[in-house]
Amino acid sequence: xxVTITFPESCLCSTERLTAAAKRWRFxxxxxxxxxxxxxxxxxxxxxxxxxxxxxxxxxxxxKETKNQFARDDPAFLVLLAGFLCLSSGLITLVLGLxxxxxxxxxxxxxxVDCIATGLVVATVMWAITNQFFxxxxxLDVEWGYSFDIHLNGxxxxxxxxxxxxxxxxxxxxxxxxxxxxxxxxxxYLLACTYYLYITFLGYSSVPFxxxxxxxxxxxxxxxxxxxxxxxxxxxxxxxxxxFYHYRVM
Length: 250
Hints:
Elements: H1 9-29, H2 39-51, H3 53-67, H4 76-96, H5 99-133, H6 144-174, H7 179-205, H8 219-233, H9 237-249
Transmembrane segments: 77-100, 106-129, 150-171, 183-204, 216-237
Main location: membrane
Membrane topology: Multi-pass membrane protein
């Protein structure tokens, strides 16, 4: 005679939490095992986040089908992002003349404040919003780790504009005290924010049980309005940000 065993809801929730914790622990353990990280694939992701971000999210969907999770299970992308921040921090240090100690401070700020701390806040907010307002099936929810991955994807694309293009063209063009300098500076930030928004939208729209994700793009008109206002008042965003970078480490 077949016997059916049912588990209370509290037991099921505990199992889900343990599974999530086990996944996080497995991810953290791999940080010590460089031989198990796929740096080639992580580099492929970084390149395609700039030239074709849709391809990156197809991989996230495939991971859900094969490993039952959207979030990355390989920390190689995070390690390469830290390396990217090290190189870009060195570039900004040279442009601003911050010196070696300034470089160390700026790098630590970039990793632990700009990337990790901000990422924890943004990922948590987006995780809460999407699970509260965008789920088509209440029985399914977005993984917090996936929200954090989406933020990291958008952050990398954003930093290509702000940590690479901005310092390279800061003194020749962006810092000029005329409309052209302000226009190019603020346009660079509009492009960077648009890329972040688009990659974020692609990330959540790739989740099959989320609905109406196009509402995330409603932020874009606000960004354009702020861009127009900044040009109208002559506010050079690059100059403000680079001065802030200099101030916070000196």
